[in-house]
Amino acid sequence: AFRVTYTFTGVTPGETTVTVKARSPIAGNYDYKYFVRVDEELNVSIEERETIDWDEAANAIEPVPTLAIAANGKVFYAHLENNASAQALIEKLSSGAIEVEMHDYGHFEKVGPLPWDLPRTDETITTGPGDVILYQGNQITIYYDQNTWDFTRLAKIEYVTREELLSAFGEGDVKAVLWIEWSE
To answer: What is the pLDDT of residues 20-30, one digit of tens each?
Structure first.
């Protein structure tokens, strides 16, 4: 056990919050958050607001899957959608990476066959650069331009431009490698 002593110097009326961080390899890792009030007569009151057990919080963190896509030496990371199609893709890629031979289609996307079918959750959407789309349940498409159709969005490569995608995927056919990375 330990005792915390507070010393106030130069006290003036007012309110503030204070966080006390306790770190110990034996007793654990805690943050104690307090609300401190000093009234006009300089009486100090302290009220505990929150205690965070960082050891417990660390155990509660759920890993998050991210779709990784590599082509021509460049790797892109795509945020997966929350739908049955993306969940099925995660399950399939959990057994290992796949290579997909992709070809240009319509000067706005690269498309290639998947080694298995995925469930479709199609809806009418307009794609943009970085959209990773399931087409007809068995093809994966990476868009570098706009197109409107009934698709299933699997993932999105955030903050990528058409030029960056074209630089990686190039003109003509390209081999892409897809896998899942887990992070916290």
So the answer is: 787 777 777 88
Nearest to 140 by CA among 182, 78, 82: 78
pTM of the model: 0.68
Tell me the CA distances in angstroms from 47 to 4, 20, 33, 85, one per residue in order.
14, 13, 9, 49
Distance CA 87, CA 140 (A): 15
Across-strand partners of 24?
A: 28
Question: Rounded to the nearest 5°, which phi and psi values hold at 183?
Answer: -140, 170
> What are the CA-CA distances from residue 62 to residues 91, 101, 183 (Å)?
16, 33, 9
Kindly give the pairing relationship between strand 74-80 and strand 148-157: antiparallel
